[in-house]
TrEMBL record:
Keyword Transport belongs to the record: no
Alphabetical list of Gene3D superfamilies matching this protein: Type I PLP-dependent aspartate aminotransferase-like (Major domain), Winged helix-like DNA-binding domain superfamily/Winged helix DNA-binding domain
Record protein name field: PLP-dependent aminotransferase family protein
Protein's UniProt keywords contain Lipid biosynthesis: no
HTH gntR-type domain mapped to chain residues: 21-89
Family to which this protein belongs: In the C-terminal section; belongs to the class-I pyridoxal-phosphate-dependent aminotransferase family.
InterPro entries per record: Aminotransferase_I/II_large, HTH_trans_reg/aminotransferase, PyrdxlP-dep_Trfase, PyrdxlP-dep_Trfase_major, Tscrpt_reg_HTH_GntR, WH-like_DNA-bd_sf, WH_DNA-bd_sf
Gene Ontology molecular-function annotations: DNA binding; DNA-binding transcription factor activity; pyridoxal phosphate binding; transaminase activity
Organism name: Leekyejoonella antrihumi
Pfam families in the record: Aminotran_1_2, GntR
Length: 467
């Protein structure tokens, strides 16, 4: 399937021309930057030179020269009868999806779309941030390169972001890791013991569930649904005496639930009442799409709680940088456990994240716009399957559908035969079963990639339902 990029669309993606570069150089650099940032996909057809001349008000000679330079640098090729097609030098690498327990294998070659993972592509400006990081790298290469708790500069930027959001934080409270899951492991190993009880929402993020099992924690399920948090159910779970509770109050994965300040205050009160250590996964905290998330961080309501975060959703999964925000009395224990995992995140990626956070402390507007468009495409399942029910979240990366029949695993198998890879509802359950009336459909991919999946999923469901 060839995606056609209109002249109007490309014009909207291009940055402003105000840096003194010749017009042809500006156009070539901008298009190549869009390919590097994933905004123009491999195989996409660029607008004709004539259409782009009209849209940009440039001369034909300028556009022709720019297209020639893009081809010379390996980011496009001219095909007779097909125009100018975008290409990624070296070709697109297969795989790269979020490695959940149920999708450790690469997607087959004939896959239409892999919807097992909810992780967005790189934002605008990623390649520029890497260039800035490389330019600054020589200032650090004179040392040994080990920063086990994070570059001081990155610790400061992350701490400032928490303070800005309403939870005053000092840099020494930040422990940088190689992702949110690594931060969670350091917290559990530093502060809990094998066999401790941990309350955890069900459904929940599969990697967190698997990590709890591997750490030999005794999980106590606390119910949550797309209709909202069940704080009465949480209190019932806390009566079983867990030492800690893992919560995802910010666009919960997979339900999309977002707790308001009143609900967060009540949850914090329950943690204090039952002497439970709150552990908060804020991976999706910056992923609001409609209006800015109004609630304060859980750390503002529960000063004793620990927060883990990541660059994966807000920026890019390939950065592999996460962190834990830890109250001062517990920092040393978490640092000690962190040293048992590895000796620190990669220095270049930390420099890149510093640059990204300084330019956009939150998700950039281009990414929000892209995700809103993709969410709308995936909501098209409502027209195809009116008996499917969903609460449209105000943010996050996926839709949590309630099916009219408990056939989630059968739906996953039928969709796979049509080239669409899904994760069943049961893969998000603490018990590993029992959520067969649900299925998650992420909208992290670009809209053009998602559109073909809607009729295929609908067709798969009709087969499963016997229609």
């Amino acid at each position: 399937m060839v995606t056609r990029v209109s002249a109007a669309r490309l014009t909207g993606l291009l940055g402003s021309r105000d840096d003194g570069r010749p017009a042809y150089q500006w156009l070539a650099d901008e298009v190549i930057g869009l390919v590097g940032d994933g905004r123009l996909l491999h195989g996409a057809r660029l607008p004709s030179e004539r259409d782009l001349v009209s849209a940009l008000g440039l001369s034909r000679t300028t556009v022709t020269r720019a297209y020639g330079q893009i081809r010379e640098r390996g980011f496009a090729e001219a095909r007779h009868g097909s125009g100018t097609l975008v290409q990624v030098p070296g070709g697109v690498v297969r795989g790269g999806g979020e490695p959940l327990p149920h999708n450790l294998d690469l997607a087959p070659e004939d896959t239409v779309a892999d919807l097992r993972s909810a992780s967005p592509p790189a934002p605008t400006g990623l390649t520029a941030a890497y260039a800035e990081g490389l330019a600054r790298l020589p200032s650090l290469t004179g040392g040994m390169g080990y920063f086990p708790f994070g570059l001081p500069e990155l610790q400061e930027v992350i701490a400032d972001r928490y303070t800005e959001r309403g939870a005053p934080t000092t840099p020494d409270q930040i422990v940088v890791t190689t992702g949110a899951l690594s931060a969670l492991v350091a917290v559990l190993h530093g502060l809990l013991r094998i066999g401790d009880r941990v309350a955890i929402e069900t459904p929940s993020y599969p990697n967190s569930l698997e990590m709890m099992r591997d750490s030999r924690m005794r999980m106590i399920p606390a119910p949550i649904s797309s209709d909202g948090a069940d704080l009465e159910g949480v209190e019932q779970a806390l009566r079983h005496g867990p030492r800690a509770m893992l919560a995802l109050p910010d666009f919960h994965n997979p339900t999309g639930v977002y707790l308001d300040d009143e609900e967060r205050a009540r949850l914090a009160h329950l943690w204090q009442q039952y002497d439970v250590l709150g552990i908060v996964d804020e991976t999706n905290a910056e992923m609001w799409l409609d209006v800015p998330a109004p609630a304060l961080p859980m750390a503002a309501h529960s000063p004793r709680c620990i927060t883990v975060g990541s660059a994966a959703k807000t920026y890019w999964g390939g950065l592999r940088v996460g962190w834990a925000r830890v109250p001062v009395p517990m920092v040393q224990a978490v640092r000690h456990a962190r040293l048992c995992l590895d000796l620190g995140a990669a220095v270049l990626e930390q420099l890149v994240l510093v640059e990204l956070m300084r330019v956009n402390g939150s998700l950039c507007e281009n990414s929000r716009s892209t995700l809103r468009e993709s969410r709308q495409v995936m909501l098209g399942l409502q027209a195809e399957l009116p008996d499917w029910q969903v609460v449209c979240p105000r943010g996050g990366l996926g839709l949590w559908w309630r099916l009219p029949r408990p056939r989630s695993s059968a739906l996953v198998a039928a969709a796979q035969r049509r080239g669409v890879l899904l994760a069943s509802g049961s893969s998000f359950a603490v018990e590993g079963r029992g959520l067969e009336t649900y299925v998650r459909t992420p909208y992290a991919l670009y809209a053009d990639r998602l559109r073909p999946t809607v009729p295929l999923i609908a067709e798969a469901w009709r087969e499963v339902a016997g229609e």
